[in-house]
Each structure stands twice: as structure tokens, then as C-alpha cells.
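Re: the 502-residue chain
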Amino acid sequence: MSYTVPHYIDGHEVSGGLTENPIYNPATGEVIGRVELADKTFLDDAIASAKAAFASWSQVSLGRRTAIMFRFRELMKAATGELAEMITREEGKVLSDSVGEVGRALDVVEYVCGVPELLKGEFSMQASSDMDVFTFREPLGVCAGITPFNFPVMCPMWMVPVAIACGNTFVLKPAKADPSAAVHLAKLFTEAGLPPGVFNVVHGDRHAVAATVAHPDIRSLSFVGSTPVGRELHRIGTSSGKRVQAFAGAKNHGLVMSDANLDFAAASAVASAFGAAGERCMALPVILVESQIADQFTKLVVEKARTVKVSGGMEPDADMGPIVTRADLEYIESVVDDAVSAGATLLLDGRGYKPPGYENGFFTGPTILTDVSHDMRAYIEEIFGPVLLIEVVKDLGEAIEIIESNPYGNGAAIFTSSGDAARRFIRSVPVGMIGVNVPIPVPVAYHSFGGWQDSFFGEAKIYGPEGVAFFTESKVVSQRWLPPTTAPSATFHFSGASSAME
């Protein structure tokens, strides 16, 4: 099977551009398609279409927006199997993970189906004599999103439904590695009744990213990717007056206390580190474990990791699929090589593993390292692969100090039976999302997602209440209605914190 993925502009597919980029099936290593990369003309056309559509879409009633979102939700739910197969075919994760990704994306769509409630303003009657004050929120204009390969459905759906339900229009640049799902989502929106130009998909490379950030008609930018790129996009975007939310790298830590359910904690560590081949920013690649139970816990983790079935994502019994590209695979294994050369202990070695029947795929198996010092690449860098580091700590205090010293602040988790330990952990660690006996604490759609420190650059997080605030601006109106025959009143006088408006 070979196919070409086009752009989606102004309500229909558009072909052409600078060049075509190969799309691989990571499980087989074969080129299965190509994606067209846009030149500046295509990007300008998409932004112009979005700008033109904003004039009318921003005035569409909340009732109609809600009806379109409900219809899109039904279409997307019905297309779960098709979308999941697209994800697995191009990204590599096992089919059950792909189905789960679509489900989490649907959570956000369902959240914004309640947009009339989310956009309700505030009203104060008789704030002053015969004067009322009210607040409401208005959309920004043309919004842009740049999303990564590892969640080709969920990450766009963190942004797009919220933005357009609030009355904005949107231009999405998905990852080149797995672009099919984004175009399919755009088609579903059109089928649901979304007018042309409200949601556009343009494929491109770093030049397209730069042009998007620099374009004067883009009012906001949402990004998910690496820390260096996120920091730079935030700097450039905000300097030109854009709103920017940049979700960046991570090095999440989990802590296993001596009073934890060890079997559950070990299973959670394995699922978190090796699920989706470790290619997710909310994985737990570092597990800190109290010294009293370190040997017992480590033995359990290694035993469970050995049972992880690595194979092609379409295989019904597969637990973990391939890495997305050969270059990513080579990087992951090079970091493990360096750690071993620097003195780390290899408890489980996944390097070079090739599942039967998938010898040409981009595979590596689960890898577990101990004795990793904090100056090694394996600890410093976000490996984004199935590599788990286990480190022994003496107590909760030492674990908190280690997490505090890490520059990232995306997520963390604690496994314990102690409410006191959990509360201290929650209050102390400088991260944005915390799990208590929950290994991957991605918030539900009616809370907001986002980290701290080098894991996030911006002011408002994504989806949930902060997402609605990010994609809208508040407007406050003070109004007084007087009978036509009323004589002009005296001027208002302000003095310090008080006024004559009484």
C-alpha cells in the first residue's frame, strides 16, 4: 500500500508544495506513503482562509457551535477503529494504545460540547448608582498548532476543539512522520458541518514552523515538542505579541515508598516506562525507591519487564511496538551504550532486539539501568524510549531533593499507603501534574494539562478551564441607561482606592 497525504485548506484537500517526505511503517521499516510539504504559498493560503472564515465563524451562535461539536464527537467516535489503525501504521504504538489515545482525545471534544456553559460571563447589577458591570469572553482570531508524532490524534484534539468552540479558526501543522490522522480529523469536522476555513491542516518542516510563528495574522501558537524548540518559539512568538503555550520536554520521576503495594508499583513502573515504547512526555523513566525495599522492588520490575511482548503494533498480543524512526532508535541505543560505558549497571538489555517477522523494523526492547549518576546522558536527557532508570534513596526527603534539582517539571508520581507522605510529596515537588498511586497523571479534560520549569513556556495551560482562557480574551463593560430627558450628571472623581461612583 502506498499513498500520498495532502494538505486540507478551506474545506477540501489541496495537493502540491515544495517536496514530499516519506512515511514509514516503523514495524517493517518500509516506506508506505508520502506527505506533501507546503511552501510559503500554501501556508499563506491556509492562514488567509482561516482569517476570512473567522469573520463569520466568530459570530456563529453558541447553539450552532455546540451542535457541530456534538456531531463531530459522534463521527469521531464511530471512526475510532480507523483512526487507531492510522496511528499504529504510521507511529508504531500497539493498537490498544492507539484506541486509548482516540478515547482521551474524545474527552476534550466532549468537554467543549458544553461551550455555552464554559463561555458564560459574569454580571454585577447596580455596581454603582444605576450602573451595571458585566464581563464576557471573545475569541482571538486565527490560532495555530504544532503537534508531535507520538500522539497524532490526542495532541491536536487538545487544541483544535477548544479553539474553534470558542469561536476561533485554526491552522494545524502535524508531525511529518504520521500525518494521516490530522487530515482525517479535518474531513470529519467538515462532515460535521464546520464551515470551510475554520480548520486547516498544512504539512511542513522547520521552515513552515518558522513562517507560522512569524506570520502577523496568527494570534496564538500552541506547541508540543522539545524544550529547546519550545523555549525559542515562546520567545519569538511573545516578542511579536502572540499568545504562546509551549509544552516541552520531561524527565518525570516516580517514587516508591517502603509502605507501597510493591506488586502494583512494579507493574505501574513497567507500564509507564515501556508503554507506547516510552515515547510519551508523561512516562516515568526514573524510579526512585526507598532502600529498605529496593532489592525486592527491582527484582519485581525486572521480572515484569521480561514479560513485555514486543512486536508489530497490529499484533493482537503485542504490549509494545517499535520506535517511530530509525534515527530515534539509534539515538536511544547510543544513550544506553554511553551509560554502560560510564559505569551504569544493565539489569535488562533491549538493544538490538528484533521480533520474529519484523527484522527490518525500528525495534528495541525494554532496558533497565541502575547506578546511573546524574551527570550521565541517560539521566540528563529525555531519552523518549523504553529505558527505565532505578535509583535507590534513603527516604522521602532525599527523593524530593532529587526531583527539585531536575530542570524539568512535567509530572511525578508517588506510590505509598501514607497520606502524610503523599501530602508532603504533593506540596513539595515542583511539577505541574502529580499522581498518587497513579503512574501517568494526565488530567481529565475538565482540568488543565501542563508542566512547570523547562517543561512548559507560557501562562495558560492546555484544554480545561485554562485552555478556554488561552483561546479567548475577556471584555468588561460598565453600562448606565438614562431616560432621554435626564440632565448630564456631575463628573466622576477618583481618589486613591475609592470613588464617587456610589
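Residues 40-57 form the longest helix (18 residues).
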